[in-house]
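Appendix B. One record, verbatim.
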Amino acid sequence: IISVTLDFSKKFLRKNMSFAVRVRRVKSYPYTSIDVERILGSKIIEKYRDINVDLKNPNVTIYVEIREKYAYIFKDIYPGAGGLPYGVEGKVLSLFSGGVDSLVASWMIMKRGCMLGFLHFKLSPYYSNLAFKRFNDAILWTKEWIPRKRIKVFLIDLGKIHSEINDIDSKYRCILCKALMYVLGEKVALENGFKGLVTGESMGQVASQTLNNLIFLSSLVKIPIFRPLIGFDKEEIMMVARKIGAYSIAARNVGKCLLRPSKPATRIERLDIIEKISNYTEYYGENYRKYLEVKYF
């Protein structure tokens, strides 16, 4: 370690420069970290007498990390994503459109150690082909963060389900859509060992994400719903997307959903609408498999 540290330090240390040595080591190593720092620091000064130690604000910091069999010596530390190892917290199912919100929410929950499955709701003919292309590209981007050879993606033809429902007041269509996503998502999750659902919802961002509507939607399922973005505004979500390099994919303009009414309901109070939505979610929850397919990426 001494020999390599001396050879390494001469690449960077120059006359009248200051330096510090920072050491981390496994507990089984016979010297403490401070002992190693002192030994290496004294050896560097012996070899390069025209430099000095500055532990508070050095020109160069030499890092030494001692493991069981090897030691790593370096000068620069670059921040990574941080978080917990993938999968240590168990499996959750992301309701994944491929847009900014669902992609960033998925990335953030992965960062906390969750293994992800993905559920995408196809909305053709109410969404453009560009939306499905964005979903595919977003899945491939997300896959780069996952230490698995392939990932499992569930797809439900929600567009076909909507085409079968013609007796809902149009201003409640968005709430019905999200209710179906929750209930069908729970069915897929429970049958495949997922512990909860992940959504990209942000409080008050759109009509279906008001507090009143979120309370109603949450009451439809029994498993946990994880909302990593609940306190973020849109610009904050965009900032995260830019930071992680996903913005150019997830923020693509793919057009608007044709099901969205001009004035969607921000709260659900009518008992007849609640009953109708409950009936539809129960029916399609029991028959969702006819709309389901599974792909691997």
